[in-house]
Write a structure and sequence with these properties.
Elements (H helix, E strand, L loop, with lengths): L1 H7 L5 E6 L1 H8 L7 H9 L6 E5 L4 H8 L3 E5 L6 H13 L2 E5 L7 H4 L37 E5 L1
Parallel strand pairs: 1-2, 3-4
Antiparallel strand pairs: 1-5
């Protein structure tokens, strides 16, 4: 929610790409816990979001062909990484830019994906040590599943 708020404050129109179940399976090797239809409905219901669209894969040039955006927002945890560098190169090819927004410390989508209810009193915004959260594409216990990320596409 915080990244959507930050992105909305920086653009005239905000389109949010929600990763499809097939794309999540291809990228993570697992289906999301919450089905695509429910996830996209939740995002579309946010008043800051002008449109919620299907994000079909890691190549955002496909999204650009469908929506012709100028800027793509990502969390700054992508900045300076191989995947961030690849994304920036792809956006340069089409004349768009990547703008990184501050990563929200202590908010982890992986906490939303726990199949069992968290202990009473545990907040999803509590600081969680990095080693207590599964690395992407791994699963240390049957109670954790990776979430599909959102791509923020402003117009």
């Amino acid at each position: 929610l915080r990244i959507i708020e930050e992105a909305a404050a920086r653009c005239d129109r905000l389109i949010v790409g929600v990763v499809t179940d097939d794309a999540a399976m291809a990228m993570k090797g697992r289906q999301p816990v919450i089905p695509f239809d429910e996830r996209i409905a939740l995002v579309a219901a946010l008043r800051l979001v002008d449109a919620a669209v299907a994000d079909v894969g890691p190549d955002k040039r496909i999204a650009w062909r469908a929506h012709r955006f100028d800027v793509l927002f990502k969390g700054d945890d992508w900045q300076g990484t191989p995947k961030g560098d690849r994304l920036e190169a792809q956006m340069r090819e089409i004349g768009a830019t990547v703008r990184y927004l501050p990563y929200t410390k202590g908010v982890r989508s992986s906490l939303l994906c726990q199949r069992r209810s968290p202990s009473v009193g545990v907040s999803m915004t509590d600081d969680v040590p990095p080693d207590s959260v599964d690395a992407p594409g791994t699963r240390s216990s049957p109670s954790r599943w990776p979430c599909a990320p959102l791509s923020l596409i402003p117009l």
